[in-house]
Amino acid sequence: MTDLASDTEVLANGDGWTATVSEDWMVWFPNGGYLAAIALRAAARQAPSMVPASLTCHFLTAARVGPADLSVRTLRASSRAQSLSVCMTQDGSVVLEALIWLVAPGIDGFPRRSRPAPPAAPPAGLRSLDGLTPPGVWDWCRLWKRLEVRPLDELERYAAWPNETLAEPTFRSWLRFRPPLTSDQPVVDAGRSLVTIDVFPYIAALMIYGPGQLTHYAPTLSLSVSFHSHKPASAWLLMEASSSFSGGGLLAGEVAMWAEDRELVATGITQMLCRPRIR
Questions:
Q1: In 128-231, where do the E strands start and end?
Q2: Cross-strand partners of 84
Q3: 23-33 confidence digits (pLDDT tens)
Q4: Per-residue pLDDT tens over the stretch 192-203
Q5: How much of the chain is in helix, strand and coil states, percent to nearest 5?
Q6: CB-based contacts of 230: which residues, under 8 Å, 6+ apart?
Q7: SS3 of 72, please?
Q8: What residues are paired with 269 via a beta bridge?
Q9: Are 257 and 196 in contact (CB under 8 A)?
Q10: What is the rounded CA–CA span in Å between residue 244 and residue 100?
Q11: How far from 63 is each of 25, 84, 270, CA to CA, in Å?
Q12: Is residue 20 predicted with pLDDT exceeding 90?
């Protein structure tokens, strides 16, 4: 099994870049956060000394497994920051458009501080969902196999879902990617946040519904993430994901993520479009 670094790699291709969309990051289609991570890698190739600060991405059509082309345009460049626009296409169809800020590392600013993490026992003291969920429950989400999830509370109810549901659409857990990252580059580390922030608000929303209510899926319309610190050496990430609203065919959510040292890594919001499942 390849890791996130390998699966988001971009290679030079004439005046642009090319990547291969892997089937290992499928939900219904290739995960939007995973695609955004590829776009971020392409942007970073044009400013290799800088680190990610923010990304806003619109998903315009469903991607497919296989080759993708990326073009990068510089909107603003200085010694301290660069703004770049990234377009991903497959067979002439635009998959996504992303706006990305990269900044020079080590810039002086306000004293370092971080939003407090929720109370959490270390991941080593918590049980994993591996092997606890009923057979077949997560078969629709191939990406689930790339994560190990250790919830902070209500493990038995998480494991029994959808036959038992949660009281509110909030999901707090430690998680780690598998296999672990083989790169210490901040731009690769940021990909973990993009994948997590894209997918877990939907999972948090699902957990308040029973089997008879699981009637819709929710492709991502837009994803906006702010990167605060880069912690590639932190194998585990602490996540608090929630879905703040559903209605009118939309589903909204937000996520905050911390490293093992409890420093805030990233925050983000996602807006999804609810669509009926095709039976």
A1: 147-151, 170-177, 216-217, 220-227
A2: 74, 100
A3: 999 888 899 99
A4: 999 999 999 998
A5: 20, 40, 40
A6: 51, 52, 186, 189, 190, 265
A7: strand
A8: 224, 254
A9: yes
A10: 25
A11: 11, 21, 18
A12: yes
Alpha helical stretches, state H, the chain = 4-7, 32-45, 155-160, 186-206
- Whether 192 and 238 have beta carbons less than 8 Å apart is answered as no
Whether pTM exceeds 0.90: yes
Kindly state the tokens that stand for 133: 């969920």
Q: What angle do CA 206, 123, 176 make, to 5 degrees?
A: 60
Within 8 A by CB and 6+ apart from 117, the residues are 238, 258, 262, 264
Distance CA 165, CA 149 (A): 18
> What's 112's DSSP letter?
P
Q: Is the pLDDT of residue 136 over 80?
A: no
Q: Where are the alpha helices (DSSP H) in 56-166?
A: 155-160
Neighbour count for residue 141 (Cβ, 10 Å): 17
Question: Distance (Å, rounded) from C-alpha 5 to C-alpha 230?
Answer: 15
Show the DSSP H helices in 60-185 as ranges. Answer: 155-160
* CA distance linking residue 253 with residue 269, whole number of Å: 6
Residue 53 identity (one-letter amino acid): A
3-class secondary-structure state, position 70: strand
Determine which helix (DSSP H) or strand (DSSP E) holds 166, and give its type and residue range. Answer: none
Q: Are strands 264-273 and 220-227 parallel, antiparallel or unpaired?
A: antiparallel
Which residue type sits at 172?
Answer: R
Residue 108 contacts by C-beta under 8 Å, 6 or more apart in sequence?
Answer: none
